[in-house]
Design brief:
The chain is built from 5 helices and 12 strands. It is an alpha/beta fold. The strands form 3 sheets. The protein has an 8-stranded mixed sheet with strand order 7-4-3-8-1-9-12-11, with helices on both faces. The longest helix is centred in the N-terminal third of the chain and has 11 residues. The two termini are 24 Å apart. NADP nicotinamide-adenine-dinucleotide phosphate binds next to β1, β2, β3, α2 and α5.
Length: 204
């Protein structure tokens, strides 16, 4: 039962023509211009993601608050996580990217970087309110979370990827709830090509 007020939620996802969003725990494509869009719109805000998506990323994304949903033990990367406990800034992570390399070398992550665990949606809403009274809360996947929370979303930011890869994670059917969408960006130069659209929830 949800007793905490739910803040406005925007789902952000990259979706193939066959609705595939993931394969074997990872993204089926590499789209740098889409990552740049994701970073631009989510920076300074809060992301909520499932434990499997968090593990596939391997670290809290710099400059954002990440709330990870999990029902299980919070033992990741050799440390015990506790609900609502802030990520110890500068902790080593397993990812080999620049931010993680900086962290491993002792450099602090940007001050807005937080990692929080939640055991259910009600806890997500209260953590989002307590730790980040910021304008936007983004639903960042994966398939399980999109399926659970799409009915609560006010807006979708969808990257339509012009490909039909094999995969085991799908984006849910959303057309009845949302409008046809407005094109924000077109990337015909990308391989595969993609287009980003904003869909708003239909008035009932
Ligand atoms: N294309 C995109 O934009 C995009 C974006 C994100 C992810 N992905 C892809 O999606 C795939 C992962 O999706 P997925 O469905 O397998 O996993 P997921 O949604 O990332 O995570 C599922 C996990 O979240 C936790 N969880 C879900 N609902 C919960 C609830 N109500 N309360 C508490 N915990 C809850 C559970 O963790 P515990 O098992 O720990 O309890 C569950 O096993 C990957 O391939 C990833 O790359 C794609």
């Amino acid at each position: 039962m949800n007793s905490t007020p739910r803040p406005p939620l925007t789902a952000i996802a990259a979706v193939a023509a066959n609705r595939v969003i993931g394969a074997n725990g990872a993204l089926p494509w590499h789209l740098p211009a889409d990552f740049a869009f994701f970073k631009r719109v989510t920076l300074g805000n809060t992301l909520v993601m499932g434990r499997k998506t968090f593990e596939s990323i391997g670290r809290p994304l710099p400059g954002r608050t990440t709330i990870v949903l999990s029902r299980g033990a919070r033992r990741e990367h050799g440390r015990e996580w506790e609900r609502g406990v802030e990520w110890e800034r500068g902790s080593p992570t397993r990812s080999g990217d620049t931010a993680a390399a900086g962290a491993a070398a002792g450099a602090a992550l940007p001050p807005e970087t937080r990692l929080l665990f939640a055991g259910g949606w009600d806890e997500v809403w209260s953590l989002a309110g307590a730790f980040s009274p910021m304008p936007k809360l983004f639903l960042a996947g994966g398939a399980a979370l999109y399926a659970e929370a799409l009915p609560w979303c006010e807006e979708l930011l969808l990257t339509y990827v012009a490909a039909s890869p094999a995969g085991d994670a799908l984006f849910p059917e959303f057309a009845p709830l949302f409008d046809a969408g407005e094109v924000l960006e077109t990337h015909a130069e990308s391989v595969p090509a993609f287009e980003i659209r904003r869909h708003r929830r239909r008035a009932v």
